[in-house]
Design goal:
pyridoxal phosphate; globular; alpha/beta; 3 domains; EC 4.1.1.15; lyase; 7-stranded mixed beta sheet; Aspartate Aminotransferase, domain 1
Amino acid sequence: MTVRRDLAGRESDDLDDVIGLNPLFARPGEIVDVPRVRLPQEESLPETAYQIVHDEAMLDGNARLNLATFVGTWMDSHAERLYADAFDKNMIDKDEYPHTAAVESRCWTMLADLWNAPDPARAVGTSTIGSSEACMLGGLALKRRWQHARRAAGQPVDRPNLVMSSAVQVCWEKFCNYFDVEARYVPISWDHKVLDGHDLEQYVDENTIGVVAILGVTYTGMYEPVEQIAAALDRIEADTGLDVRIHVDGASGAMIAPFVQPDLVWDFRVDRVASINTSGHKYGLVYPGLGWVVWRDADALPEDLVFRVSYLGGDMATFALNFSRPGAQVLLQYYLFLRLGRPGFERVQRASHDVARSLAREIGAMPAFELWNDGSDIPVFAWRLREGHTSNWTLYHLSDRLRARGWLVPAYPMPADLTDVTVQRVVVRNGLSQDLADAFLADLRSQVAWLDGLTGPMPTEGATPGFHH
């Protein structure tokens, strides 16, 4: 039996309880084992503690080869210097950091302008930790606005519901769970791959607080047609008198469409759109975690949800679920807005879009696959195994084979009513160059050829979704 000692000198025969140091890492006078799940009884030198943590993190995947995540994994050296300069800034402390607070206000005003708010100066917005928080704030505003209207009419407010696609991101399920709202899911299908207004009247009633339209569905990257959804709600209002507003979940697409599809009408140009969110840490190109939410005007954000903070003789509206949170990412977003401007963002987003379209064309041409979409919306696309191609392997097996090459490419079932369909998805982000995409394509073809060469079926035990929505 192997006996090891931790920093306190205690013996342990459970090797999982201790982290053993390479003798080259240990400094004179230090014991070579550190407890894994208890606070050590002795101090370590900073160099030693650093090396332990560094080596643990080294075992994570290579972020540049992660084609599963939407989250940004690269910024330039100037951004990294700015990040280090602002590690200590607390976004909520607007008295101590008034200029960071002013920068936050400038950022969401820029977004209000980018998203064609009728009067950006009258828009209201805030930064958040990410799009999940931003979505919940958008949902809360819809709920509170509905409650006020119902109470003013002497009607009950105990059964609110929210209408959305079955392909929404899990944050909307959380919103409905946390804030006592019935989730009404409109199932997607082969005929209606996204929420498009079809049969919407079957889901909307007097208790509907709003409809969520997704600009870039997480499962596939497809846009939901906001104008079409609004037109369906116009017809519902003409028939029933119900005035139902839209929140656009633009976690990804709200930072793509203005630059890649500028003529697409999805934003505050649609009168029914009350609020829009996006992720600064996705196609906003900032490190995690940063989100934004903007309301078209003060009427869309009930006043009783707004807290006001005075600083330097001014007045600033704040509305967020979190209290203390980092301010550095807000400064990084402002840095990128200043550095890139509209032309720079267009070049960066179009480059990702071009890579996605190119990859989709090549993968769609492979006999093994059938594209679900082609990356023409956000730079994201998905495919499934072509029916009848093989019974020896699945996309889960292909995902495992690619992971062995360093590529993270998730495979997962589609949502309700299409759970028998398994797809694989690629997210093209800033940093996935055409050269890297070509290297991925070569590995994909190689692994498909290996799988197609099997003379019997691969085992199916342990085949699980590689990505959770």
